[in-house]
Write a structure and sequence with these properties.
This protein has 72 residues and is mainly α. Helix content is 93%, strand content 0%. The chain has helices at 3-27, 30-71.
């Protein structure tokens, strides 16, 4: 999945989740409100996972660069 697709997916979860949360709050439907909160948290978790993946990829690239320099 491309970075933009990951970003869109997490944003979709956060926005949809917030909408469900608000709907549940307005209608008094605690199940819907909780479902929305959960979906929002999933979106946030996806963001953190993508950030972690980027950090790991950066560290790997940096290590590869250093290894190449040491080989020369």
């Amino acid at each position: 999945m491309s970075d933009i697709n990951k970003q869109l997916d997490s944003t979709k979860d956060k926005v949809s989740g917030k909408a469900k949360e608000i709907e549940g709050n307005l209608t008094g439907d605690k199940t819907r409100e909780t479902e929305g909160k959960t979906q929002s948290l999933i979106g946030k978790a996806k963001d953190k996972l993508a950030d972690t993946e980027d950090t790991i990829k950066g560290a790997i690239d940096e290590a590869k660069t250093k290894l190449k320099k040491n080989d020369n």
